[in-house]
Amino acid sequence: FAASSSPVGCCALLGAGVSGTEGAPRPWRGHQNNAIAVSCSHILKRNRDLTKAWKGKTEQLLRVNEHDFTMRPAFGGPAIPVGVDVQVESLDSISEVDMDFTMTLYLRHYWKDERLSFPSTNNKSMTFDGRLVKKIWVPDVFFVHSKRSFIHDTTTDNIMLRVFPDGHVLYSMRVTVTAMCNMDFSHFPLDSQTCSLELESYAYTDEDLMLYWKNGNESLKTDEKISLSQFLIQKFHTTSRLAFYSSTGWYNRLYINFTLRRHIFFFLLQTYFPATLMVMLSWVSFWIDRRAVPARVSLGITTVLTMSTIITGVNASMPRVSYIKAVDIYLWVSFVFVFLSVLEYAAVNYLTTVQERKERKLRERFPCSCGIPHSKTMMLDGNYSESDANSLAGYTRNQMVPEEEKPEKMVVHLAMSNESNSSRKRGLKGHVGLRIIQNTHAIDKYSRLIFPGTYIFFNLIYWSVFS
C-alpha cells in the first residue's frame, strides 16, 4: 500500500477492493479492504491540519486579498497594543568624535490582527519570511535620532513573520543602527556615559497605536559576550514615556538605556604617564650648572615641545567642545610647570648677568681695594706698620698712592669701603627676598623643593576630585 500516499489514492484502492472484475466479491478482498480502511483513516487524521496540508496560496489561507491592510487592525476603535522586546546582539562601536554608537539587535513586535486568523485544530503557527510582510499591516516603528540603519540581507532578508490561528502576530528583524548619543566630556577620561536607543511609531499617535515593552525590564536581553575596548558596560535598562510634537500630537516612545564607564588604564599609559615624565624631566635643569646655557635651554625647549605634542594628540581624537575637560586641566597644568622651569632658568641667567655687571663696575671704580686684604680694610686711621706697606709691593706705581698723601687718602679710601660694606649688610638683613635674587644659586635650590611639592599637591587634589 506504499503507493497510497493520499486520501484520494486510499479511496481508489478501497473501491477497487470492493468490486471484482465481474462484480462478484472475492474472499481475500475483505481483509484487504479492512487494512486499506485503517490506513486511510490514519492518513486523513494526520493531514487534517490545514497549516501543514494546505496546497493553495498563502494569501488564500490568510485571506490577504479580502481585507484592506493599508488600515491598522480595529480601525476606528481603541488603540491597538503593540508589544516590543529586544535582544542586543552586539555593541559595535562608540565614537567620541561623532558622538554616536552602533548597535546590532533583534527587534520583535507582537500584536493581534484578526484579519489574519485561520482555522487550525492543533493551534500551530505559520512562519513566513519577508515576502509576506509587504502584503499585510505591520507597525511603522523607527529609531529616533538614528543616523544610519539597515536590515541585514545575507543570505536573505533577516525578517521573520509568525502568524497564529487566533490572529496573533510575531514580527522579528535583525537590524544594525547607528544613533546619536549626547556625551558629556567634562570628566573625560574619568567619565561615564549614558546612551539611549529610542523607538517610536512614525505615523500613529497614542490614540491609534500603544507601543509598550512586552515584559517590562525583562523585554531587553543582552549577550553576555558583549564587550568594548574602551568601556565597561555597567547596566542595560528600559524606560518609556510620551513624546509630543506640536504639529502631530503625542506618541509612545520606548528607550533602551545603557551606561558605559571608560577604562582609564589606556589613558594612563598614553597621556598621564608621559605628561608626568615630561614635568619631572624639566626639573633636571635645576641640578645643572647655571653656566651651562645650551644644556638647560635645550632641555627646557624639548620638554615644552613634547607637552605640546601630547596636548595636540589628545585633542585630535576628541570633539571640539567649548568646555574644559578633565584631561585638559591635567595637561595644561603640566604644561605650565614645564614652561615655568624654562622661565626659572631665564631668571637665573638674567640675574647672574646683572650681578656680574655690577661686580665689574665696582672693580673698575675702586681698583686698589682689590689688592688690600679684607682684614686691612678695617683700619680707621693712618697708622700702619712697615709690613703693611710691604704687602703693597706688588702694585705698579700708578696703582700706589703717593707717599706724601698716603695717610690721608688711605684713610678716606678705607672709610668709604667700610661704609659701603656696612650699608650693604644692613640692606640685606632687612630684605630676605633681595638676598635670594642676588644669590642665583638660591633660586635653583628653592626650585628643587617648590616645583615637586606643588606638583604632588596638584595631583592629590586632581585625582581626589575626578576619580
Automatic annotation (TrEMBL):
<dbReference type="InterPro" id="IPR038050">
    <property type="entry name" value="Neuro_actylchol_rec"/>
</dbReference>
<keyword id="KW-0813">Transport</keyword>
<feature type="transmembrane region" description="Helical">
    <location>
        <begin position="297"/>
        <end position="317"/>
    </location>
</feature>
<dbReference type="InterPro" id="IPR018000">
    <property type="entry name" value="Neurotransmitter_ion_chnl_CS"/>
</dbReference>
<feature type="domain" description="Neurotransmitter-gated ion-channel transmembrane">
    <location>
        <begin position="271"/>
        <end position="463"/>
    </location>
</feature>
<feature type="transmembrane region" description="Helical">
    <location>
        <begin position="329"/>
        <end position="351"/>
    </location>
</feature>
<keyword id="KW-0407">Ion channel</keyword>
<dbReference type="InterPro" id="IPR006201">
    <property type="entry name" value="Neur_channel"/>
</dbReference>
<keyword id="KW-0868">Chloride</keyword>
<keyword id="KW-0812">Transmembrane</keyword>
<dbReference type="GO" id="GO:0034707">
    <property type="term" value="C:chloride channel complex"/>
</dbReference>
<keyword id="KW-1003">Cell membrane</keyword>
<feature type="domain" description="Neurotransmitter-gated ion-channel ligand-binding">
    <location>
        <begin position="62"/>
        <end position="263"/>
    </location>
</feature>
<dbReference type="InterPro" id="IPR006028">
    <property type="entry name" value="GABAA/Glycine_rcpt"/>
</dbReference>
<keyword id="KW-0869">Chloride channel</keyword>
<feature type="transmembrane region" description="Helical">
    <location>
        <begin position="449"/>
        <end position="466"/>
    </location>
</feature>
<dbReference type="GO" id="GO:0005230">
    <property type="term" value="F:extracellular ligand-gated monoatomic ion channel activity"/>
</dbReference>
<keyword id="KW-0628">Postsynaptic cell membrane</keyword>
<keyword id="KW-0770">Synapse</keyword>
<dbReference type="GO" id="GO:0005254">
    <property type="term" value="F:chloride channel activity"/>
</dbReference>
<dbReference type="InterPro" id="IPR036734">
    <property type="entry name" value="Neur_chan_lig-bd_sf"/>
</dbReference>
<dbReference type="InterPro" id="IPR006202">
    <property type="entry name" value="Neur_chan_lig-bd"/>
</dbReference>
<keyword id="KW-0732">Signal</keyword>
<keyword id="KW-0406">Ion transport</keyword>
<dbReference type="Pfam" id="PF02932">
    <property type="entry name" value="Neur_chan_memb"/>
</dbReference>
<protein>
    <recommendedName>
        <fullName>GABA(C) receptor</fullName>
    </recommendedName>
</protein>
<keyword id="KW-1133">Transmembrane helix</keyword>
<dbReference type="GO" id="GO:0045211">
    <property type="term" value="C:postsynaptic membrane"/>
</dbReference>
<dbReference type="Pfam" id="PF02931">
    <property type="entry name" value="Neur_chan_LBD"/>
</dbReference>
<dbReference type="InterPro" id="IPR008059">
    <property type="entry name" value="GABAAa_rho2_rcpt"/>
</dbReference>
<dbReference type="GO" id="GO:0004890">
    <property type="term" value="F:GABA-A receptor activity"/>
</dbReference>
<dbReference type="InterPro" id="IPR006029">
    <property type="entry name" value="Neurotrans-gated_channel_TM"/>
</dbReference>
<comment type="similarity">
    <text>Belongs to the ligand-gated ion channel (TC 1.A.9) family.</text>
</comment>
<keyword id="KW-0325">Glycoprotein</keyword>
<dbReference type="InterPro" id="IPR036719">
    <property type="entry name" value="Neuro-gated_channel_TM_sf"/>
</dbReference>
<keyword id="KW-0472">Membrane</keyword>
<feature type="transmembrane region" description="Helical">
    <location>
        <begin position="264"/>
        <end position="285"/>
    </location>
</feature>
<keyword id="KW-1015">Disulfide bond</keyword>
